[in-house]
Write a structure and sequence with these properties.
- It is a single chain.
- The protein has 140 residues and is of the alpha+beta class.
- The chain has one domain: 3-Layer(aba) Sandwich (Aminopeptidase).
- 28% of the residues lie in helices and 31% in strands.
- A 6-stranded mixed sheet has the order 1-2-3-4-6-5, covered by helices on one side.
- Strand 3, helix 3 and strand 4 form a beta-alpha-beta unit.
- The longest helix has 15 residues.
- The N terminus is likely disordered.
């Protein structure tokens, strides 16, 4: 992300930067599902789900976090597999909707989310303070 967005956070007022940093951080105890894609013994992809909103135990809406595919494995369907598996896991957990945040410079991710039926939504807190934030949702 640093390669794409550089020191963007340096341009926000301190209170907004702190809020965004907290939103980007993922506390392990908040994660309800983690996916790891292996090529042999090498991790090549990762994604997670956590409850969205203020009620940590409410799994009705889950937020997709930290979707990542190793550069050497991009273009091979790994991210599509991660996303469709996240949707299946969300359904199994009783979720009715998935949400996610991405940045406007992540063209491949944006294309994938839209191809999978995710719809643009207004940025949810704290991303409404971030001009390059794009938020998506998918009803399950």
């Amino acid at each position: 992300m640093t390669a794409l967005y550089g020191s963007t956070m340096d341009h926000y007022p301190p209170e907004i930067a702190r809020s965004l940093s907290a939103a980007f951080a993922v506390e392990p105890e908040t994660i309800v599902a983690t996916l790891l894609v292996l090529d042999g013994e090498t991790a090549v992809g990762h994604a997670g789900l956590r409850p969205h909103g203020s009620r940590a135990g409410d799994l009705g809406v889950l937020e997709i976090k930290k979707v990542f595919v190793r550069h050497s494995h991009r273009g091979r369907g790994v991210s599509r597999g991660l996303m469709t598996t996240l949707e299946s896991v969300g359904r199994e957990l009783g979720s009715t909707r998935l949400v996610l945040q991405t940045g406007n410079l992540q063209g491949a991710a944006i294309g994938l989310y839209e191809a999978l039926g995710y719809s643009v939504t207004p940025p949810y807190p704290p991303f409404e303070s971030m001009p390059n934030a794009l938020c998506y949702e998918k009803v399950l």
